[in-house]
Amino acid sequence: MVFWQLTIDANDPALLARFWSAALGYQPVPSAEPQTTWNAHYRSRLGGQDAFGDRLFDPEGLRPPLWFQQVPDTKAGKNRVHLDLYPTGRDDTLTLDRRVALVEAKVAELVGLGARVERRTGGEDPEDPYYYVVMLDPEGNEFCVS
Q1: In CA terms, which of 13, 33, 45, 123 is 20 to 30 Å from 72?
Q2: Residues near 16 by Cβ (< 8 Å), separated by ≥ 6?
Q3: For the chain, what are the domain ranges?
Q4: What is residue 57's DSSP assignment?
Q5: Residue 35 has what pLDDT?
Q6: Using an 8 Å Cβ cutoff, are 14 and 54 in contact?
Q7: What is the pLDDT of residues 55-74, one digit of tens each?
């Protein structure tokens, strides 16, 4: 088994950490449970701080952490990797109207946190309930909501 974290280059790591914390429900403190070596590793690196300003953790301690790594250069070009957020739970039984409502509620929340909408795709055919929104986080990194 290989442990991994997702590292995202950032000009303002604290800004992106705050945004993605709210977007994903992650927290800036590693979970105490389960008692994994990686959770213990991160807790030991806090060094008396209450929380990290540039790292986020799944509150259940099961999903990979995120690290927003400070870099001097700004984003150039399209992301090669991006996050997909599923407020729909990937439930294939949802009607198109319900799917659009769930996605648009999450999109509105994320816009309120500083994201921007790039484009909306799908939603024209009630028999084909695919619908997603491509968004940009506060530093212009693409991600999708579907």
Answers
A1: 45
A2: 8, 10, 68, 137, 138, 139, 141
A3: 6-70, 83-145
A4: B
A5: 81
A6: yes
A7: 999 999 888 999 999 999 98
